[in-house]
Design goal:
There is one protein chain. The chain is of the alpha/beta class. The chain has one domain: Dihydrofolate Reductase, subunit A, CATH 3.40.430. 24% of the residues lie in helices and 28% in strands. The chain contains 6 helices and 10 strands. Strands 5-4-3-6-1-7-10-9 form an 8-stranded mixed β-sheet, with helices on both faces. It has a two-stranded antiparallel ribbon with strand order 2-8. The chain is globular, with a radius of gyration of 16 Å. It starts with 6 loop residues before the first strand and ends with a strand.
């Protein structure tokens, strides 16, 4: 019997100036993006780098197999967490699953895009004026997604579509943070 290879999906929230993090966490709070992430990734396996996983507010993520790619991670959880020494071994572990989600951080994203592994990219574009101001003051303090979001939203190699949720489905963000959601499928 032939084993099914999963569709490899990357999912990322990108703020102003291609920022995805600061000090191991997202530098914004966006309830609608958290909802989108949970709805999109459940019940599929999620692959993280060690720092990203260790900085999750809830771990392991419920309803999903959590895979940590690291040679130094000490698994303190038994259920729903698997440690892998490489991205490839993490993906191989998910054989038979329809999809697997690459969830960061920067090194993990860079690896999967350098190796041309991603079939679908889910992008949340985060807009927050206060964050924009702080990034201009402290540009070196932030981690950035290794590829400009416009390369996925405006090119022939990726077919992109905006994801629109029905009215009242998304939670209301009370801190002036707005998110737009996109699905980009690689054109092969």
């Amino acid at each position: 019997m032939k084993t099914i290879s999963p569709t490899i999906c990357s999912i990322v929230a990108i703020g102003p100036d291609n920022v995805i993090g600061r000090d191991g966490v997202m530098p914004w709070y966006c309830a609608s993006d958290f909802y989108h992430f949970r709805k999109t990734t459940t019940p599929y396996p999620c692959i993280f780098g060690r720092v990203t996983f260790e900085n999750l507010p809830i771990k392991p993520l419920p309803g999903r197999l959590n895979i940590v790619c690291s040679s130094s991670y000490k698994n303190e959880f038994v259920k729903d967490v698997f440690c892998a020494s490489s991205i490839e071994s993490a993906i191989d572990y998910c054989a038979g699953s329809d999809k697997v989600f690459i969830c960061g951080g920067v090194g993990v994203y860079k690896y999967v895009f350098d190796k041309d592994l991603t079939d679908i990219l889910y992008i949340s574009i985060i807009k927050n004026l206060n964050l924009s101001r702080d990034i201009k003051k402290n540009p070196g303090a932030y981690c950035r997604f290794p590829i400009q979001a416009s390369e996925f939203l405006n090119c022939k190699k990726w077919a992109s579509e905006r994801i629109i949720y029905p009215d009242k489905e998304l939670p209301i963000d009370k801190n002036n943070t707005v998110a737009e959601f996109y699905k980009c499928v690689r054109v092969r």
